[in-house]
Amino acid sequence: MGIGYNEGNHIPWRWLPVPVPADKYPLLLEETERLLKKLEEHDLPSLIHTQDVAKVTKEFIRFLRLPRETSMPIILAALLHDIGKLRVASGILQKPHGIDAIEQILIQVHSNHGASIIQEGGLFPPEVAEMVEQHHEHYDGSGYPGQLTGSSITRGAQIIGICDVFAMLREDRVTQKARTLAEAKEYLAKNKAWFAPDIYESFLQYVAENYG
């Protein structure tokens, strides 16, 4: 169904040493599981995709050799990056044919919704909400919701962004069949202006080593 959706590949978020006070940690884990369960009930393909993105992000971060204190919030944000789709009608998310302009806007605001959901309980580190809100921003300013450019996009969001695109390309979706690896790489190359040059080049190296 996707890159990571099976019992053996679930991201072990219970093991994530996210930098929060010790008394809040169990509550953060409980809230993460609650949100993912709601997403599963609302739109299963979105849950499958978010697990795929978290898996690719975790592997890419390991390839980059980022320190754990940096990498763990990024992985958590990857796991929750589409949680804002809870506030998008499932009928729009599952629409088998092209969406109209209004529906496109309703889908795009999921980034804002996701940041709001994460901020509501006061449990998650602020950088998690920031990465969730920015994961569709593009390095060249063509993304959303803020049309941010370059270094104004957090590095974590840039990492999640390229992993999100790659996972999307490799999945069977309502509107498209999974792309081959060659097709996915071609798509990334065609749109490489979306990504910071160093992240793009590192991701290609990661793909070559892990996918052939």
From TrEMBL:
Segments traversing the membrane: none
Q: Which CDD domains match?
A: HDc (cd00077)
Coiled coil spans: none
Superkingdom of source: Bacteria
Annotated Gene3D superfamilies = Hypothetical protein af1432
InterPro entries per record: HD/PDEase_dom (IPR003607), HD_GYP_dom (IPR037522), HDIG_dom (IPR006675)
- SUPFAM superfamilies, per this entry? HD-domain/PDEase-like
The HD-GYP domain, residue ranges: 24-212
Task: Please report the name of this protein according to its UniProt entry.
Answer: HD domain-containing protein
Please report the organism this UniProt entry assigns to the protein. Answer: Heliobacterium mobile (Heliobacillus mobilis)
